[in-house]
Structures are given as C-alpha cells and as structure tokens.
Design goal:
The chain has about 500 residues and is of the alpha+beta class. It is built from 14 helices and 22 strands.
C-alpha cells in the first residue's frame, strides 16, 4: 500500500473529546491511544476513524478522529455514520438463529424447503444445501465469486438468487471455505417466507436495532449520502492520493452487507453480545440464540499465525472465532467501497471493540483492533500498525507501478492492428449477462447492462490489449484483453479490483 501524507490543515487532530468516556484500563488505552491513532491515520493516509471500547459492561472509549471529508473542517465523532458492510452478517445470523429458537425454521433444513426455485450449479449441491450452509461460506465457490455482477448493480434480490446457479464451484461442497455474499442474501430471503412476509430489514429493525436503542443505525444504504453526519468514502488503491468515491448502493445484497452504523450505536451491540443477549439489564434475545451464532461451522485456517498469538480460525453464523493469547475471540470485518470496519468481542474478558474507517486501502482498522486486544490481554507491545504497514506497502508499490506502466503503453500511441469498429458490439458472460462496446473517438467505451452508472474507457496499448479505466475509481485500472479467431474478434477479458471480485470475466462477442 503506497502512502502519501495528507496536507489538510488539522486533519488528524482528535475531534471528539466530548464523546470520550472516563477511560480506565491498560496504560496504552489511558495514555497512548489518541497519539497511536493519529500516527496511524497519517501513516496509512486515512481521513477519519471512530473507535469504541466496551469493558466490563461500560463504554470506556467512544471517540472520533480525523475528518469525514477531506478539505473540510468536518470532524468525525462517535455518532458519525459509516457503512459497516459485512459486519451486517452477524445481524443476519442472529435473526435466523432466533427464528429457529421460535421454531419457525431449522438451520439444518434444506434451503429449497423455503425457496423452491433456489438452484446452485449442480443438482446434488442444490438438494443438500441448508440454511446453515448458506451462513457458513462452504458451498464450494471462490471468495467473492459473482460479486462484480451483484455489487452496486440494478439486479433485484430475487435475480441475484436466480443467478447463483451460474456460479461454477472450484472446490467440493462443504470441504473448503469460500466467502459468499450471495449466500447470505439467499438466507435472508427466507426470513419473510417464515415470518408472515416481514422483510429481513424490518425484522432486524424490530427485533435488534430498536430494542438496543441503535437509533442512528439503518439496515439499508438507501439515501445514506443524504443523512446527517456521514463519513465520505475514499480509496488509495490505484493512486497514493486519496480519491473520493461514490456511495455504494447495495441493498440488493442487504442481509450480507447493507447496515450503516456509528461508534456509539455499536457500543450497544457489543454490550448486548457481552451480556448474553441483554441490554441495560433487559432481555432482548435469548442466550440460546446468541450461542447458536457462535457455534463453529467452517474451518478458515488451522496454522499458527506468523505474527499474532493465534492458531485456528473458524466461521460460525456471521462471525469468525479464533484463539488469541489463550482466549476465544469473535470478530468480523466489513468492506464497502471507501469503508473498512471491524467489530470484535471477547466474552471471557467482557471486552468489545469496534473500529470504523473511511478509506478502504489500509490495514490500520485491523492493526488498531489487535493493538487493543494486546493491551487488554497482556501481550507484549509490538507496533501492529507499523508491522502490518511493512507487510502491505510493497503490494501497493507494485500496483502503482502497474498503473504507471499501462499509462506508458497508452502514451506510446501505437496503432491498433484492426479498426476500432471491429471491437464494437454486444458481448455475453454466463454469470454477468450482456455488456456493450462502442467506439468513442480514438477510444472504446464499455457499458454494463446491470451497472447503469458504470462505464469503462478503453485506451489502446498494444497487441490486443487496451487499458480499461472505470468511471468509478473503486473498480480500478486494468488491461482488457481481446482474442481474435479467423480475423474476427471473439472474446474480451476484463478485470475489476480484487476488493470486489478476484477472478476476471470473459465475455464472448455475440
């Protein structure tokens, strides 16, 4: 990750002393937390951050740092909203576990019992897949497979579920971990089937958000940018200068990723988790429901971490669990374009942590979590921020170099082997569907049928390769490669940021 220090005046000053509770606990938290965060914001080029620490039933830290929007005197505070993305998954696991507690379903029921039209790539997996499988990332697909098609698209929830049958698995069913957002959406679609038509988002609001007093939290992203006190999304993935991004619109994947929240509200969620389903002394959900969400289902790692005091990692129902310094910890991360966040709790220590940030190309949101865990669990001090930065920095330099090399190839102004019109037309991919390529002066313009607000400009480099520059900077800058058979353009291969999907898509010209 290539870093460039921000020059905005006063950018990294703490902005929320009024939100800070009476801080107690380890010396790091009492004396060093603020300065550590300010150094981390500078090192990782992060505009803003909000952090929560809950210990022994009390909120000991709930504070904002930095700015919501670069170039403005716009400080983050403990009520500033961020997209928490996949931290939505534990809410979904919790409501489905509660529906089992109410005997409205069984987590080990086949998904088709409730969604008869549900299909996966092969008939055996379709028949065997249960609600638990959908919530456990073990249907055999690759991590993020299909997400370019689904994320920020105009596809409905039903259309996404329908398209899952085209996701060809790369591993055997129930053998390996492969992170699947569309599986969580599918599981969430079972909620209205068994609960009188009440949508997932309404059930989450009624049964969790309202009882916990999470008044700033919404289960949906619609209208997020128009709400008061909202952090703006940024990235440094393809340029060291923070680039402002449009807000994601991802309610079609709602049960996987659509919650938005703030530090203060997440302190309520952490207190609920640490008090076995109670909040402020009142029972919100049974302990049996929370216990179900924490039962491990899929191994995601079984070897000792080279840098952390951890050996195993298991996925439960919307939350990971692992050992850390001889305690069992639970956590999840969440990434939307321009936002990365995490939520973590350690029941044995009655400790909860959340970190929210508005720059998606950094690991400080994780470094701070580990630093706080180390402080509370007695792990000798290691600067986790610098440790992770040294690990990540070479990868960013390589990305920036690749972008520069593409620019040089475009600047060489080589002449294409064929006329631009020969590349134009409609192309099809079995998962995505159709895209179109049209000529635009000396460039090509790529349009996406399921992303009406997204285009990619194709500039010729050499051979049969063009540089694709997406109108939404989050999607990246990559080579687009055409193939030719018998003098005719046959296919086009395009790629997007691995933050969205790891594999490229091959489109065949129709």
């Amino acid at each position: 990750m290539k870093l460039r220090l921000l020059a905005a005046l006063g950018l990294f000053a703490t902005s929320a002393s009024a939100q800070t509770r009476t801080v107690s606990g380890p010396a790091f938290v009492r004396d060093s937390l603020s300065s550590y965060i300010q150094r981390g914001l500078k090192l990782w080029n992060i505009p803003g951050l909000a952090v929560t620490v809950v210990k022994d039933g009390q909120v000991v830290v709930s504070q904002g740092f930095g700015t919501k929007t670069l170039g403005k005197n716009d400080p983050v505070d403990a009520n500033t909203l961020f997209m928490i993305a996949s931290n939505s998954k534990l809410f979904t696991g919790t409501v489905l576990a509660q529906l089992e507690e109410e005997k409205k379903l069984r987590l080990d029921d086949p998904a088709r019992k409730y969604l008869p039209s549900f299909r996966l790539y092969d008939s055996t997996t379709t028949r065997l897949t249960t609600i638990r499988d959908l919530l456990s990332h073990r249907i055999g697909t690759k991590t993020f497979q299909g997400d370019f098609t689904f994320w920020d698209s105009n596809l409905s929830r039903a259309e996404i579920v329908e398209k899952m049958r085209y996701l060809k698995p790369s591993k055997p069913f129930r053998q390996d971990y492969g992170y699947c957002n569309s599986c969580f959406l599918t599981a969430g679609e079972i909620v209205p089937v068994v609960n009188g038509g009440q949508k997932w988002e309404d059930f989450v609001q009624q049964r969790i958000l309202t009882p916990l007093g999470m008044s700033r939290t919404s289960p949906l992203t619609a209208g997020f940018g128009q709400r008061p006190n909202v952090a703006s999304p940024y990235t440094t993935t393809f340029s060291p200068t923070p680039t402002l991004l449009p807000f994601d619109e991802i309610d079609n994947l709602g049960p996987a990723t659509s919650l938005t929240s703030c530090a203060n509200d997440l302190s309520h969620w952490l207190q609920f988790q640490l008090d076995s389903g109670k909040y402020q002394g009142q029972r919100v959900l049974p302990w049996a429901t929370l216990r179900r969400t924490r039962e491990g289902n899929t191994l995601s790692g079984t070897s000792k971490s080279p840098i952390f005091p951890s050996h195993f990692r298991v996925y439960a129902l919307g939350v990971y669990t692992a050992d850390y310094a001889a305690r069992q910890i639970y956590w999840h991360t969440g990434g939307a374009n321009g936002f990365v966040t995490n939520v973590c709790f350690v029941p044995e220590e009655r400790l909860g942590i959340s970190v929210l940030t508005n720059q998606d190309n950094q690991s400080f949101f994780e470094a701070l979590r580990y630093q706080l865990l180390d402080a509370y669990l007695g792990v000798p001090y290691v600067d986790r921020s610098r440790q992770l930065y040294n690990f990540a920095h070479p990868g960013d330099l390589a990305t920036y170099k690749a972008v520069d090399e593409q620019a040089k190839r475009v600047a060489a102004k080589k002449k294409p082997a064929r006329k631009l019109q020969e590349y134009t037309g409609t192309y099809q991919n079995p998962v995505y569907g159709p895209v179109t390529v049209e000529a635009k002066g000396k460039q090509l313009l790529l349009r996406f049928s399921h992303h009406p607000n997204l285009t990619a400009t194709l500039d010729y480099m050499d051979g049969e390769q063009f540089r694709s520059t997406y109108s939404n900077p989050a999607y990246g800058i990559f080579p687009a490669t055409f193939t030719v058979e018998n003098g005719q353009v046959k296919t086009m291969e395009v790629k997007v940021n691995e933050f969205l999907e790891q594999d490229s898509y091959v489109f065949t010209k129709g």
